[in-house]
Amino acid sequence: MRVLNADRAETILFLHGGNVAGWMWGEQVPAFGDYRLLVPDLPGFGESNGVPWESVAATADHVAALLDRPVHVVGLSLGSSVALELAARHPELVLSLFLASTQAAPTPLPQRALARVMLSAWERRPFWAGLARSYGLAGADAELFVSTGLGIRRATAVAVFDEVRHGIPDARLALVRAPTLAVAGERDSRAVTVHSLERLARGIRDCRTAIAPGMHHQWNIEGVELFNDALRTWLHSARVGFQADNHHSPVHPTLKEIPPWH
């Protein structure tokens, strides 16, 4: 696990998605130099590729064992699932949750079938190149995504999918006590932008939800300024949007908060 800015008072833990590794936070690390940053590669990914993936719960316990103090947790996709399980199993370690692209609702049958097709092509470069395009990635970001994705074993991907496709049980969400902001990219699937956000809002006691305009699934890379501004605003004031002051105003879209679900 990478530890940066070790002398800072507050800590952010970044948990990556299911087809990347800790490198995906490359645009966030320099933007949050005023925080102590923890950036692990989860079991089965990146430098932890040789560590077998067991389950979301086991991974949450693994992460908890790395922590020596309460932290703000930022997770994307699979990282959000691990973040929620961490908050449910070890509430004393989680100060707040910033969740991006969370798959909290069960995966619809058509998407399950598509995922099976994708998994059959997991070890092929054209598959990763197409996935990069669907995430809105280009240039060096896309090439890094492709090259590192090819290093993730298919068995790991299958095990992760077989677990997360069921969504996150309401009983687990009810255990989360940390203030939570869940954000979905506007161009992500309805399973994420609608069904998962609603499930999170209804299931977590203190949860706000929002949409990132124009963004796809991997929107921390696609919309760096939007992501970083939204995260900093959340950390500083538990607000949704952009923390403007008297000298600056947003020059890009801000998050669109969703009113309380009824």
Question: How do the strands and helices of this protein lay out in sequence?
Answer:
Blueprint: E1 2-4, E2 11-15, E3 36-39, H1 56-64, E4 71-76, H2 78-89, E5 94-100, H3 109-120, H4 125-134, H5 139-149, H6 154-164, H7 170-173, E6 180-185, H8 190-203, E7 207-212, H9 219-222, H10 224-237, E8 256-257
In summary, what is this structure?
With 262 residues, this protein is α/β, with parallel strands linked by helices. The chain has helices spanning 56-64, 78-89, 109-120, 125-134, 139-149, 154-164, 170-173, 190-203, 219-222, 224-237; strands at 2-4, 11-15, 36-39, 71-76, 94-100, 180-185, 207-212, 256-257.
Structure report:
It is a single chain. With 262 residues, the protein is of the alpha/beta class. It has one domain: Rossmann fold. 39% of the residues lie in helices and 15% in strands. It is built from ten helices and eight strands. The protein has helices spanning 56-64, 78-89, 109-120, 125-134, 139-149, 154-164, 170-173, 190-203, 219-222, 224-237; strands at residues 2-4, 11-15, 36-39, 71-76, 94-100, 180-185, 207-212, 256-257. Strands 1-3-2-4-5-6-7-8 form an eight-stranded mixed beta sheet, with helices on both faces. α8 links the parallel β6 (180-185) and β7. α1 packs across α2 and α4 packs across α5. The protein is globular and about 45 Å long. The termini are far apart.
